[in-house]
Amino acid sequence: MRRLTVWAPSSERVELLLGDERHGMVGHGEAWAVDVDAPDGTPYAFSLDGGPPRPDPRGLRLPEGPHGWSALYDPTGFGWSDQAWQGIPLEGTVLYEVHVGTFSPEGTLDSATARLGHLVDLGVDVLELLPLAPFPGRHGWGYDGVAIWAVHEGYGGPEALQRFVDAAHAAGLGVCLDLVYNHLGPDGNYLAEFGPYLTDKHSTPWGSAVNLDAAGSDHVRSWVLDNVALWFRDFHVDGLRLDAVHELHDSRAVHLLEEMSALTDRISEEAGRPLWLVAESDRNDPRTVTPRGEGAAVGGTGVHGQWADDVHHGLHAALTGESHGYYADFASPEALGKVMRTPFFHDGAWSSFRGRAHGRTVDPATVAGWRFVASLQTHDQVGNRAAGDRLSHLVDTDLLACGATMLLTSPWTPMLFMGEEWGASTPWQFFTDHTDPTV
Q1: What residues contact 49, with CB distance under 8 A and at least 6 apart?
Q2: 8 A C-beta contact, residue 239 and residue 278
Q3: Element (H or E) spanning 43, and its range?
Q4: Does the pLDDT value for residue 260 go beyond 90?
Q5: For residue 430, is it within any domain?
Q6: Does residue 428 fall inside a structural domain?
Q7: Mean pLDDT to the nearest integer, 278-294
Q8: What CATH number is attached to the domain comprising 397?
Q9: How far apart are CA 213 and CA 179, in angstroms?
Q10: Considering the chain, what percentage of its residues have pLDDT values greater than 90?
Q11: pTM of the entire predicted model
Q12: Domain count along the chain
């Protein structure tokens, strides 16, 4: 028997649709539950007040994509062989960013496993996988997912992710997942029918914000925090990269990031191996990676690392000579020297792109350099260019080597983008495969 539960605070009647069966669920406060006997792979969905079937907000499989039914999957049944894996700290690592769908011709986690030997020979330490949450169609970047607990079926689903992590650990490689908690995609998003997962109190560049501080937000925060725990405990990943945390709008006294880092540290202690979070933030605020306060003392959010885009901008401007848009402030030789000494060029300095002063100074005595992840290329910096041109399209091999040398010998934690190691000539543009004609 297994118990299925769902949060639906405004519903008066909730039914579980399990294969061809309908089961009435029992209300417990704002949640509904029912015990059923069904094997993994059984399709299921919820009907709210007699409405159409909707996938489980905490479901781990969506075989037909975000518009389809969920499928039962128990992640604790996987046979792990990584018992000897001791984990890998963020300090001293080289990260390698991978988009599973374009990393191999097959575009699956299993086919990516066949390339682990190349990455071992390359000398990287941790594979950072771009978002794996289900999205409409077959191909996409993954940043417009709606089912944060599931793994895209086109990549192989949740069991394929467990196989990949197990194989990576056997090869001596760590795995970091890129997670999007700051918004939900527009295609296949049924969460508002269940409860106040979104709020109009705040907005993001992609629409309504995830509800972290309005009425009903206690459950939404648990939905996120339980998901963090899932990846560490049941999928054995080593790190999580948190997308655009400046769009996690949270006015509570204890920010969600602080809760995330505290949870990660607790699970790390339980597991006996290092686990860590890396935030993407454009605030240039070292408090993101400043340790949490002891006891009642107030400190930072305690996130273990954060991206340092200013380092990329300084290197890119120096190598290419580009000075448009946000590269304008990095056009002088002094900018390159500064980002080799401190991760934030904008450390309270004027930002012409923003039209205001931006950022805060990093104190190297209290915040170590390895906490800042730096790069020459990323999915964003390549993919958001109109032609998706890589650095290898813009400079010759001597300058590529010069840039790589500066990155790899910098005080920061270096990250490579897939194909960068051989100067890949293939462009990498933004792509999506929405199925909803209104999107």
Answers
A1: 11, 12, 13, 14
A2: yes
A3: strand 43-48
A4: yes
A5: no
A6: no
A7: 96
A8: 3.20.20.80
A9: 20
A10: 91
A11: 0.96
A12: 2
Nearest of 343, 327, 345 to residue 335 by alpha carbon? 345
pLDDT band for 439, please (50, 70, 90 cuts).
Answer: low
Structure tokens of 254? Answer: 């204890």
Q: Is 280 a catalytic residue?
A: yes
**Has residue 418 been placed in a domain?**
yes
Which pair of tokens denotes residue 335?
A: 């900018």
pLDDT, tens digit (0-9, with 9 covering 90-100), for 151-173: 999 999 999 999 999 999 999 99
Name the domain boundary from 76, 99, 114: 76
Write out pLDDT tens, residues 385-419: 989 999 999 999 999 999 999 999 999 999 999 99
Query: Does the annotation mark 347 as catalytic?
Result: no
Structural domain for 37, as ranges: 2-76
Q: Which of 125, 258, 265, 280 is catalytic?
A: 280
Q: CA geometry: angle at 100 spanning 94 and 101, to 5°?
A: 145
Q: Do residues 214 and 136 make contact, with C-beta atoms less than 8 angstroms apart?
A: no
Taking only the tens place, the pLDDT of each residue in 85-139 is: 999 999 999 999 999 999 999 999 999 999 999 999 999 999 999 999 999 887 8
- Check 125, 144, 153, 243 and give the catalytic one: 243
User: Tens digit of pLDDT for each residue in 317-335?
Assistant: 999 999 999 999 999 999 9
Which element (helix H / strand E) includes 356?
strand 356-358
317 within a domain of the structure (yes/no): yes
pLDDT given at position 136:
87
- Amino acid identity of residue 427, one-letter, is P
- CA nearest 314: which of 342, 292, 274? 342
Element (H, E) at 16: strand 14-18
d(CA 194, CA 185): 16
Length of the chain: 439
* CA dist., res. 415 & res. 373, Å (int): 7
Closest by CA position to 304, among listed 87, 123, 158: 87
Single out the residue in 48, 76, 104 at which a domain terminates. Answer: 76
Q: What single letter denotes the amino acid at residue 248?
A: L
Q: Are residues 84 and 25 in the same domain?
A: no
The answer to whether 183 and 209 have CB atoms below 8 angstroms apart is: yes
